[in-house]
Amino acid sequence: MAFVDHKGQFIACIALSAVLTMDMGYTMTQVHFANPLGAKGWRVSRHPIRCGLSLTIPNYGIAYFEQYAAKPPHFILRTWDEVQRFLPAKIIVKTPIWKAEKPPILVGQFIVKPGEYGVFLRRDGALKLLTFLSQGYEPNFTYRAETGFNTMVSLSPVGFQKPYSRYQECIGNLLPFGYEQVRESIFHYKEDGRELSDEDKEQLRRIARYVNADAQIKEIRVVGYADANGRKGYNNAISEERARIVQKYLLKLGIPKEQLSVTWVGELYPIARNDTDAGRAANRRVVITLIKR
Protein backbone atom coordinates (compact mmCIF):
# COMPACT_ATOMS: atom_id res chain seq x y z
CA MET A 1 0.00 0.00 0.00
CA ALA A 2 1.08 3.61 -0.44
CA PHE A 3 1.50 5.98 2.49
CA VAL A 4 0.34 9.62 2.40
CA ASP A 5 0.58 12.55 4.83
CA HIS A 6 -2.37 14.58 6.08
CA LYS A 7 -2.28 16.77 2.97
CA GLY A 8 -2.54 13.75 0.74
CA GLN A 9 0.94 14.18 -0.68
CA PHE A 10 2.82 11.10 -1.68
CA ILE A 11 5.57 10.09 0.75
CA ALA A 12 6.57 6.57 -0.15
CA CYS A 13 5.50 3.77 -2.43
CA ILE A 14 7.03 0.77 -0.75
CA ALA A 15 4.32 -1.82 -0.54
CA LEU A 16 4.83 -4.41 2.14
CA SER A 17 3.35 -7.60 0.75
CA ALA A 18 2.96 -11.17 1.94
CA VAL A 19 5.34 -12.36 4.62
CA LEU A 20 7.77 -14.98 3.36
CA THR A 21 9.40 -17.67 5.44
CA MET A 22 13.20 -17.73 5.12
CA ASP A 23 15.56 -20.66 5.49
CA MET A 24 17.06 -19.12 8.62
CA GLY A 25 13.92 -19.81 10.60
CA TYR A 26 12.41 -16.32 10.82
CA THR A 27 10.08 -14.30 8.63
CA MET A 28 11.16 -11.57 6.25
CA THR A 29 8.94 -9.00 4.51
CA GLN A 30 8.97 -8.59 0.74
CA VAL A 31 9.61 -5.00 -0.34
CA HIS A 32 7.73 -3.90 -3.43
CA PHE A 33 8.75 -0.83 -5.44
CA ALA A 34 6.23 0.45 -7.97
CA ASN A 35 4.92 3.60 -9.58
CA PRO A 36 1.62 4.33 -7.77
CA LEU A 37 -1.58 5.21 -9.61
CA GLY A 38 -1.85 8.93 -10.15
CA ALA A 39 1.91 9.50 -10.14
CA LYS A 40 3.80 10.68 -13.21
CA GLY A 41 4.17 7.76 -15.58
CA TRP A 42 6.20 6.94 -18.64
CA ARG A 43 8.10 9.80 -20.28
CA VAL A 44 9.65 10.10 -23.72
CA SER A 45 12.79 12.00 -24.70
CA ARG A 46 13.25 12.52 -28.43
CA HIS A 47 16.36 13.54 -30.35
CA PRO A 48 17.80 12.76 -33.80
CA ILE A 49 20.60 10.71 -32.22
CA ARG A 50 18.86 9.26 -29.14
CA CYS A 51 15.39 8.11 -28.10
CA GLY A 52 14.44 7.33 -24.51
CA LEU A 53 11.37 5.95 -22.71
CA SER A 54 11.63 6.15 -18.93
CA LEU A 55 9.68 5.49 -15.74
CA THR A 56 10.71 6.85 -12.34
CA ILE A 57 10.09 4.34 -9.56
CA PRO A 58 9.77 6.17 -6.21
CA ASN A 59 12.34 5.27 -3.55
CA TYR A 60 14.09 2.90 -5.94
CA GLY A 61 15.39 4.50 -9.12
CA ILE A 62 14.56 4.76 -12.79
CA ALA A 63 13.83 2.28 -15.56
CA TYR A 64 14.43 3.27 -19.14
CA PHE A 65 14.56 1.98 -22.67
CA GLU A 66 17.09 3.69 -24.85
CA GLN A 67 18.26 3.60 -28.45
CA TYR A 68 21.01 5.60 -30.13
CA ALA A 69 21.36 6.25 -33.86
CA ALA A 70 22.59 3.18 -35.76
CA LYS A 71 22.69 1.10 -32.56
CA PRO A 72 20.37 -1.57 -31.12
CA PRO A 73 18.05 -0.72 -28.22
CA HIS A 74 18.76 -1.62 -24.60
CA PHE A 75 17.05 -1.45 -21.22
CA ILE A 76 18.52 -0.17 -17.96
CA LEU A 77 17.12 -0.44 -14.44
CA ARG A 78 19.10 2.00 -12.33
CA THR A 79 18.79 2.06 -8.56
CA TRP A 80 19.66 5.07 -6.41
CA ASP A 81 21.39 2.76 -3.93
CA GLU A 82 23.99 0.81 -5.86
CA VAL A 83 24.43 -2.82 -4.91
CA GLN A 84 27.89 -3.93 -3.82
CA ARG A 85 27.85 -7.51 -5.04
CA PHE A 86 26.32 -9.68 -7.75
CA LEU A 87 22.73 -10.71 -6.98
CA PRO A 88 20.77 -13.44 -8.82
CA ALA A 89 17.44 -12.14 -10.11
CA LYS A 90 14.41 -13.07 -12.21
CA ILE A 91 11.98 -11.30 -14.52
CA ILE A 92 8.40 -12.40 -13.89
CA VAL A 93 5.51 -11.05 -15.96
CA LYS A 94 1.96 -10.75 -14.65
CA THR A 95 -1.05 -10.92 -16.99
CA PRO A 96 -3.30 -7.85 -17.40
CA ILE A 97 -6.25 -7.63 -15.04
CA TRP A 98 -8.72 -7.55 -17.96
CA LYS A 99 -7.53 -10.94 -19.25
CA ALA A 100 -8.31 -14.30 -17.80
CA GLU A 101 -6.18 -14.78 -14.70
CA LYS A 102 -3.13 -16.89 -15.46
CA PRO A 103 -0.05 -17.78 -13.44
CA PRO A 104 2.86 -15.32 -13.70
CA ILE A 105 5.30 -15.99 -16.57
CA LEU A 106 8.99 -16.48 -15.87
CA VAL A 107 10.64 -14.56 -18.70
CA GLY A 108 14.28 -14.98 -17.75
CA GLN A 109 17.01 -14.91 -15.16
CA PHE A 110 19.85 -12.44 -14.89
CA ILE A 111 22.31 -10.85 -12.45
CA VAL A 112 21.96 -7.49 -10.72
CA LYS A 113 25.50 -6.11 -10.97
CA PRO A 114 27.40 -3.70 -8.73
CA GLY A 115 27.53 -0.14 -10.01
CA GLU A 116 25.21 2.55 -11.25
CA TYR A 117 23.50 0.40 -13.88
CA GLY A 118 22.57 -2.71 -11.94
CA VAL A 119 20.33 -4.20 -14.62
CA PHE A 120 21.29 -3.93 -18.28
CA LEU A 121 19.38 -5.86 -20.94
CA ARG A 122 20.51 -5.87 -24.55
CA ARG A 123 18.35 -5.79 -27.67
CA ASP A 124 16.37 -9.04 -27.32
CA GLY A 125 15.57 -8.53 -23.65
CA ALA A 126 14.60 -4.87 -24.18
CA LEU A 127 12.30 -5.68 -27.10
CA LYS A 128 10.66 -8.47 -25.14
CA LEU A 129 9.88 -6.11 -22.24
CA LEU A 130 8.50 -3.49 -24.64
CA THR A 131 6.22 -6.08 -26.21
CA PHE A 132 4.87 -7.25 -22.85
CA LEU A 133 4.22 -3.68 -21.69
CA SER A 134 2.52 -2.75 -24.97
CA GLN A 135 0.14 -5.69 -24.45
CA GLY A 136 -0.74 -4.63 -20.91
CA TYR A 137 1.49 -7.09 -19.04
CA GLU A 138 3.40 -6.02 -15.93
CA PRO A 139 7.10 -7.01 -15.83
CA ASN A 140 8.52 -7.56 -12.35
CA PHE A 141 12.19 -7.82 -11.35
CA THR A 142 12.68 -9.93 -8.24
CA TYR A 143 15.83 -10.58 -6.20
CA ARG A 144 17.12 -10.95 -2.65
CA ALA A 145 18.68 -7.63 -1.66
CA GLU A 146 21.93 -7.39 0.29
CA THR A 147 19.87 -6.43 3.33
CA GLY A 148 18.11 -9.80 3.12
CA PHE A 149 14.78 -8.42 1.93
CA ASN A 150 13.05 -10.12 -0.96
CA THR A 151 12.73 -7.25 -3.42
CA MET A 152 10.31 -6.79 -6.31
CA VAL A 153 10.43 -3.87 -8.75
CA SER A 154 7.41 -3.45 -11.05
CA LEU A 155 7.08 -1.70 -14.40
CA SER A 156 3.54 -0.44 -14.74
CA PRO A 157 1.76 -0.81 -18.11
CA VAL A 158 -0.70 1.93 -17.08
CA GLY A 159 -0.46 4.88 -19.47
CA PHE A 160 2.21 3.15 -21.53
CA GLN A 161 0.63 3.20 -25.01
CA LYS A 162 0.85 6.90 -25.93
CA PRO A 163 4.46 7.39 -24.76
CA TYR A 164 5.40 4.13 -26.48
CA SER A 165 3.92 5.35 -29.78
CA ARG A 166 5.94 8.57 -29.54
CA TYR A 167 9.04 6.54 -28.69
CA GLN A 168 8.53 4.42 -31.82
CA GLU A 169 8.11 7.55 -33.92
CA CYS A 170 11.38 8.87 -32.51
CA ILE A 171 13.19 5.64 -33.41
CA GLY A 172 11.85 5.91 -36.94
CA ASN A 173 13.41 9.37 -37.22
CA LEU A 174 16.84 8.55 -35.80
CA LEU A 175 19.81 9.36 -38.00
CA PRO A 176 20.76 6.27 -40.05
CA PHE A 177 24.34 6.61 -38.81
CA GLY A 178 25.94 7.30 -35.45
CA TYR A 179 29.03 8.93 -34.00
CA GLU A 180 31.28 6.00 -34.84
CA GLN A 181 30.44 6.38 -38.54
CA VAL A 182 31.55 10.05 -38.61
CA ARG A 183 34.03 10.32 -35.73
CA GLU A 184 37.00 10.11 -38.10
CA SER A 185 36.93 10.26 -41.90
CA ILE A 186 39.89 9.91 -44.23
CA PHE A 187 39.79 11.11 -47.85
CA HIS A 188 42.46 9.93 -50.29
CA TYR A 189 43.61 11.62 -53.51
CA LYS A 190 45.19 10.81 -56.82
CA GLU A 191 48.63 12.24 -57.52
CA ASP A 192 48.31 16.06 -57.55
CA GLY A 193 44.60 15.60 -56.77
CA ARG A 194 42.71 18.00 -54.59
CA GLU A 195 39.03 17.72 -55.56
CA LEU A 196 36.43 15.85 -53.56
CA SER A 197 34.87 12.68 -54.91
CA ASP A 198 31.11 12.10 -54.78
CA GLU A 199 31.72 9.64 -51.95
CA ASP A 200 33.71 12.26 -50.03
CA LYS A 201 30.91 14.80 -50.43
CA GLU A 202 28.35 12.29 -49.18
CA GLN A 203 30.45 11.68 -46.07
CA LEU A 204 30.76 15.43 -45.47
CA ARG A 205 26.96 15.70 -45.67
CA ARG A 206 26.72 12.96 -43.02
CA ILE A 207 29.21 14.83 -40.85
CA ALA A 208 27.23 18.07 -41.15
CA ARG A 209 23.94 16.33 -40.26
CA TYR A 210 25.50 14.68 -37.23
CA VAL A 211 27.20 17.84 -35.98
CA ASN A 212 23.91 19.75 -36.26
CA ALA A 213 22.20 17.06 -34.18
CA ASP A 214 24.82 16.51 -31.48
CA ALA A 215 25.50 19.49 -29.22
CA GLN A 216 28.43 17.61 -27.69
CA ILE A 217 30.56 18.16 -30.81
CA LYS A 218 32.74 21.17 -30.04
CA GLU A 219 35.16 21.06 -32.97
CA ILE A 220 35.66 19.61 -36.44
CA ARG A 221 39.37 19.15 -37.00
CA VAL A 222 40.56 19.06 -40.63
CA VAL A 223 44.18 18.20 -41.42
CA GLY A 224 45.65 18.05 -44.94
CA TYR A 225 48.59 15.82 -45.90
CA ALA A 226 50.74 15.12 -48.97
CA ASP A 227 53.16 12.47 -50.09
CA ALA A 228 56.91 13.16 -50.43
CA ASN A 229 56.93 12.99 -54.23
CA GLY A 230 57.83 16.61 -54.94
CA ARG A 231 59.36 19.71 -53.40
CA LYS A 232 58.51 20.48 -49.81
CA GLY A 233 56.91 23.81 -50.72
CA TYR A 234 54.62 22.20 -53.31
CA ASN A 235 53.65 19.42 -50.92
CA ASN A 236 52.81 21.93 -48.24
CA ALA A 237 50.69 23.97 -50.67
CA ILE A 238 48.71 21.03 -52.03
CA SER A 239 48.02 19.72 -48.51
CA GLU A 240 46.61 23.18 -47.71
CA GLU A 241 44.43 23.15 -50.83
CA ARG A 242 43.00 19.77 -49.89
CA ALA A 243 42.15 20.94 -46.38
CA ARG A 244 40.69 24.25 -47.60
CA ILE A 245 38.39 22.54 -50.11
CA VAL A 246 37.00 20.36 -47.33
CA GLN A 247 36.55 23.45 -45.16
CA LYS A 248 34.73 25.28 -47.96
CA TYR A 249 32.33 22.39 -48.49
CA LEU A 250 31.52 22.12 -44.78
CA LEU A 251 30.88 25.88 -44.62
CA LYS A 252 28.55 25.50 -47.60
CA LEU A 253 26.66 22.84 -45.61
CA GLY A 254 26.09 25.30 -42.77
CA ILE A 255 28.88 24.40 -40.34
CA PRO A 256 29.93 27.55 -38.41
CA LYS A 257 33.43 28.73 -39.26
CA GLU A 258 34.36 28.96 -35.58
CA GLN A 259 33.63 25.25 -35.18
CA LEU A 260 36.27 24.33 -37.78
CA SER A 261 39.96 23.85 -37.03
CA VAL A 262 41.86 23.60 -40.34
CA THR A 263 45.58 22.84 -40.62
CA TRP A 264 47.98 21.23 -43.12
CA VAL A 265 51.36 19.61 -42.66
CA GLY A 266 52.61 18.77 -46.15
CA GLU A 267 54.61 15.56 -46.27
CA LEU A 268 55.01 15.32 -42.49
CA TYR A 269 53.58 12.41 -40.50
CA PRO A 270 53.31 9.77 -43.25
CA ILE A 271 51.32 6.65 -42.45
CA ALA A 272 53.10 4.56 -45.08
CA ARG A 273 56.41 4.40 -46.96
CA ASN A 274 56.87 6.99 -49.70
CA ASP A 275 58.97 4.74 -51.94
CA THR A 276 55.98 2.81 -53.33
CA ASP A 277 52.89 3.87 -55.27
CA ALA A 278 50.61 2.36 -52.62
CA GLY A 279 52.46 4.10 -49.82
CA ARG A 280 52.31 7.50 -51.51
CA ALA A 281 48.59 7.02 -52.24
CA ALA A 282 47.97 6.33 -48.55
CA ASN A 283 49.84 9.49 -47.52
CA ARG A 284 47.88 11.80 -49.86
CA ARG A 285 44.94 12.39 -47.57
CA VAL A 286 42.73 14.68 -45.50
CA VAL A 287 41.64 13.54 -42.04
CA ILE A 288 38.42 14.96 -40.54
CA THR A 289 37.94 14.31 -36.82
CA LEU A 290 34.94 15.23 -34.64
CA ILE A 291 35.98 16.33 -31.16
CA LYS A 292 33.45 16.07 -28.31
CA ARG A 293 33.27 18.37 -25.30
UniProtKB/TrEMBL annotation:
PROSITE patterns: OMPA_2
Gene Ontology, cellular component aspect: cell outer membrane
OmpA-like domain segment(s): 178-293
The keyword Lipoprotein is annotated on this UniProt entry: no
Keyword Flavoprotein tagged: no
InterPro entries tied to this protein: Bact_OuterMem_StrucFunc (IPR050330), MotY_N (IPR041544), OMP_bac (IPR006664), OmpA-like (IPR006665), OmpA-like_sf (IPR036737)
Pfam families noted in UniProt: MotY_N, OmpA
Signal peptide range: none
Subcellular location: Cell outer membrane
Keywords of this entry: Cell projection, Cilium, Flagellum, Membrane
Name the record gives this protein: Sodium-type flagellar protein
